Amino acid sequence: MSIAINEIISLQQKIVPDLLEVLLLRYKILQTICFRQPIGRRSISEYVETGERIVRREVYFLRDVGLVKIEPQGVIVTQVGEEVMWALQEFISSLQKLPNYQVELERRLGLGRVIIIPGDCEHDELVFMSMGKILGKILNGTLKDGDILAVTGGTTLSQLTPFLGNYKKKVLVVPAQGGLGEKVDIQANALAATIAERLGAKYRLLHVSDDLERKSMALIMEQQPLIRETIALIKRADVLVKGIGDAYQMAKRRRFSNEEVQNLISKKAVGEALGCFFDISGRIVHNRSIGIDLDDLDNIGTIIAIAGGAEKAKAILAVLESKKQHMLITDSAAAKEMLRLLDTEYKA
Known about the structure:
By secondary structure, the chain is α/β, with parallel strands linked by helices. The protein has 16 helices and 13 strands. Helix 2 crosses helix 5, helix 6 crosses helix 16 and helix 10 (about 215-225) crosses helix 11 (about 225-235). The chain is globular and about 65 Å long.
């Protein structure tokens, strides 16, 4: 008689109820070491919010089974330890029924693939780190020599780019849009350069503001051939990675006037991507951006949207409803809230 894994887990919880708690703690410790190595036991204790004595015991256990090493500079993870960490993440995803959520979101939103990381990136930066690792692996498997990779700016991408992994790719990385006059490290130009460095690739930058009027941009392109060439490269992108923002936060970042903000409110804008503002049905209610526009998306082979956090769920849904992306990388907090919203009458 075969027993399903869910039945095994149910039996385990009845017979040894503390086993799952220990597994989750060891996973959290292993994940912390993996992303912050080398790291001391006191720092691990602070990150996992567990007493130093318990952390010391668990670190020694992980060392004894070959998953970590204790070096003079701190604890580091072994190759086997990193593999186990990712396997545990998949197991925890199954416990939380995340594969079911993935299939449901793919079906209801017409996406080719949804990847859900356990947790809430708004409250746990390790989730951001995991999203970055996953994105790196996808890019490594997707990008081919000679491809052009376009990336947007934004807080989400800026927080996960350091964890993409080091790959050697003969590709060109470009910003998908112009600058927004905001913090330099979250602008598309800065992220394109950082991602290119992580991938061992080349990059081109776009030194124009994203809020230029169309007439002004046409004049600049006429007078500046280098900018014209860069925009032509951007529009030929083979792969696009785009963040998703809350409409009103993005309006603030773009320094919209009070009149423009009121216009967004009257049109019930909730999400933003690539300078386009969407209502919950996926209809564009405002569009102003330099670089890739909606017409270009039909010619891009792989479009990856990435965003997480329960508070962004409505914005993510609004952008996804436009049917202009192939893949979503998110976290379980956002996924659960999106499904909850899809099951309500909030669109009515």
